[in-house]
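Protein modeling request. Please complete all fields; requests missing the sequence field cannot be processed.
Requester role: graduate student
Desired output: 3D structure, token encoding
Chains: 1
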Amino acid sequence: MDEVEKFFKCPYCFEKISMVIDITIEDFHSYVEDCEVCCNPIQISYSCENSKVRSFSCEKAY
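Delivered output (62 residues):
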């Protein structure tokens, strides 16, 4: 399994946080995850293709 660490800023508290993405699953993914700093819900969306992250976005979930 190939993984890559993606860094981004929380859309609520603007702290730099990270997540690990499995780049072997070539598909579009979208889910809600709480910020590890402020605990607010973040809508994470990304897609992978050819073992690379092709798109990534994070925004306030609600």
